[in-house]
Amino acid sequence: MAAGPGAFDLSGLGPEDQGKLMAVMQDLQIQDSLRLYNELVQRCFGECVDSFRSKKLDGKEEACVTKCAQKFVKMAARVGQRFAEQQQQLVSEAQRGSTPPS
């Protein structure tokens, strides 16, 4: 059975090694999510919040933060999608290159 994009064949590893690898991958995924969240907060806060007159954002600031966050999330999703497409293309090219000619 062929693995999908981003999937790894772990059958060559023992159960303990598979568990360790999956734990590392989950940790990396959490770190990446936190990095993206921090980048979003820094970027949108820096661009949208001008003053600290009150505890709450004013209407203009809130609209700006909302728009900025939406754009950032769309951009991150698109970058992830393009990365997956390129990875799949590389896998396909590697498989074609390793297939003996008929």
UniProtKB/TrEMBL annotation:
<keyword id="KW-0813">Transport</keyword>
<comment type="subunit">
    <text>Heterohexamer.</text>
</comment>
<keyword id="KW-0653">Protein transport</keyword>
<keyword id="KW-0143">Chaperone</keyword>
<keyword id="KW-1015">Disulfide bond</keyword>
<comment type="similarity">
    <text>Belongs to the small Tim family.</text>
</comment>
<dbReference type="InterPro" id="IPR035427">
    <property type="entry name" value="Tim10-like_dom_sf"/>
</dbReference>
<protein>
    <recommendedName>
        <fullName>Mitochondrial import inner membrane translocase subunit</fullName>
    </recommendedName>
</protein>
<dbReference type="GO" id="GO:0005743">
    <property type="term" value="C:mitochondrial inner membrane"/>
</dbReference>
<dbReference type="GO" id="GO:0046872">
    <property type="term" value="F:metal ion binding"/>
</dbReference>
<keyword id="KW-0472">Membrane</keyword>
<comment type="function">
    <text>Mitochondrial intermembrane chaperone that participates in the import and insertion of some multi-pass transmembrane proteins into the mitochondrial inner membrane. Also required for the transfer of beta-barrel precursors from the TOM complex to the sorting and assembly machinery (SAM complex) of the outer membrane. Acts as a chaperone-like protein that protects the hydrophobic precursors from aggregation and guide them through the mitochondrial intermembrane space.</text>
</comment>
<keyword id="KW-0811">Translocation</keyword>
<keyword id="KW-0479">Metal-binding</keyword>
<dbReference type="InterPro" id="IPR050673">
    <property type="entry name" value="Mito_inner_translocase_sub"/>
</dbReference>
<keyword id="KW-0862">Zinc</keyword>
<feature type="domain" description="Tim10-like">
    <location>
        <begin position="23"/>
        <end position="85"/>
    </location>
</feature>
<dbReference type="InterPro" id="IPR004217">
    <property type="entry name" value="Tim10-like"/>
</dbReference>
<dbReference type="GO" id="GO:0015031">
    <property type="term" value="P:protein transport"/>
</dbReference>
<keyword id="KW-0999">Mitochondrion inner membrane</keyword>
<keyword id="KW-0496">Mitochondrion</keyword>
<dbReference type="Pfam" id="PF02953">
    <property type="entry name" value="zf-Tim10_DDP"/>
</dbReference>
